[in-house]
Amino acid sequence: MASIPKHFFDHQSKSDKNTNVAVASKVVQKSNKKKQLRPTFNGKNTKKLFIKTYGCQMNVYDTQRMSDALAPEGYVNVDSPDQADMVILNTCHIREKAAEKIYSELGRMRVMVDKKNRNLPEDQKTKPVIAIAGCVAQAEGREIMRRAPIVDMVFGPQSYHKLPEMLGKLQAGQRKVVDTDFPTEDKFDSLPAATKTNTIARGVSAFLTIQEGCDKFCTFCVVPYTRGAEYSRSIARILNEAQNLVAAGVREITLLGQNVNAYHGQDDAGNTVNLSGLMAALDTIDGLDRIRYTTSHPNDMDQQLIDLHRSQKSAMPYLHLPVQSGSNAILEAMNRKHTRESYIEVIERIRLARPDIALSGDFIIGFPGETDDDFDATMDLVNQVTYSQAYSFKYSTRPGTSAATMENQIDDEIKTKRLAQLQDVLNTQQRQFNLNTVGRTLDILFERTGRDAGQLIGKSPYLQPIYVDAPTELIGQILPVYIESLGNFALKGKIVD
User: Fold this and answer.
1) Is 398 annotated as ligand-binding?
2) What is residue 371's three-state secondary structure?
3) Domain match, 310 and 397 both
4) What is its main location (predicted)?
5) Are residues 231 and 246 in the same domain?
6) Has 135 been labeled as part of a binding site?
7) Is 56 annotated as a binding residue?
8) Cα angle vertex 158, ends 83, 11, to 5°?
9) 462 and 424: one domain?
10) Last residue of a domain, which of 436, 452, 471?
11) Is 439 annotated as a binding residue?
């Protein structure tokens, strides 16, 4: 496990875990003016669970696995917190004001609880278990307990396999439960397999985490501190989970990792296998037609993985490869460990192997010290590469990261102006990429019903949503579709007879 710099916790505490009892007692003392309700355990065989997910695909996967962990305890998912016996907010710490969004949501929870209990005698008032999970919980567990007495449980992304144990502590009378440790045991070894019913309900495309954590330590990023050091799951466990997904009707799997192409799992013989080796193994699963992976780092994009996009049919022609900036000075300040030139060289090798590949990227605008020339270099790179889609954001400080204390922080007005310029170009590129598919016939995986009656939404090999008039019986099938037109945002097509 990579060591975590002390400065990362300077804005919080020395240890969430060791101080949770003291924190809980302070919270209770401060809230004496209004007695805090204890969570209600209904004793029924079936209990209702609501999870709200913020952030990345890995959080979506984690949310699904939390549901799996609680299923043996009798919890079933519901669509609204006011129906729930337990509410989990699975949080993301990447973007600005992430924690404040959680406190706003908790304020709504407090109103919900007060409304349900209005005019009820004290002995009839109820409250769901309220838990904060994910990266905000990992980074700010003590502060959450201090500011939000309504919260009963806080746990990080590495400890949700212990949810039944944590619930047991609450049920036994413990007032607050905090677990933001990085446990020595592998959470994936402890989690129960997803039920077939849950897997079917999640659809024909699935996420599967194969790698967690990051050792790159970009100066703007909290991931090494909230998710820990790079860790790769074993080949056997990944294959087993993938086979279970396919048996339940999944046709497409997206492999997830904070730095997914740094994957280095072990096979049964103890040999280290890289991402291309894992994808080749997954390709042997009958019924698994499509494989994607995200998010990649340019430095880990080896030639074997690049060549696989040409040789393996199940490897989709889509790659998310963040660059963040087109300026070498800013890339160095970000500690990205690559240059503009090395990134473009990787792109050229990828396009040589798979000319039709759709490329997406990430961009951070207004990083400390970014000059007009630095921004122009980013715009030049975007025009040189051309993207099918991209994610772009204004830089925002993350407490505890090196960039948060850098000099020459950029005025928000400048960041806003630059971001608008960049997004205008990126949106134009995305629209042009979509226009280039009009008139082509593509294999479309039908995933779900559309908003209109008789409409299905499918996914192209390039990750584009495609709208087609078709019966629901076709969900889960991959069929040739002629792309007829592009509206404001969506492509429309018809099934080829």
Assistant:
1) no
2) coil
3) no
4) cytoplasm
5) yes
6) yes
7) yes
8) 95
9) no
10) 436
11) no
